[in-house]
Amino acid sequence: PQLLSPSAPSRMKRDRVFEIAKGFRGKAKNCFRVANPKAENALMHQYEDRKRLKRDMRTLWIERINAGAREHGLKYSDFIHGSSLANIQLDRKVLAELAVTEPPAFKEVVDKARAALIAKYAPNGVPQQNDPNQTLLP
Question: Cβ distance 42 to 51 under 8 Å?
Answer without folding.
Answer: no
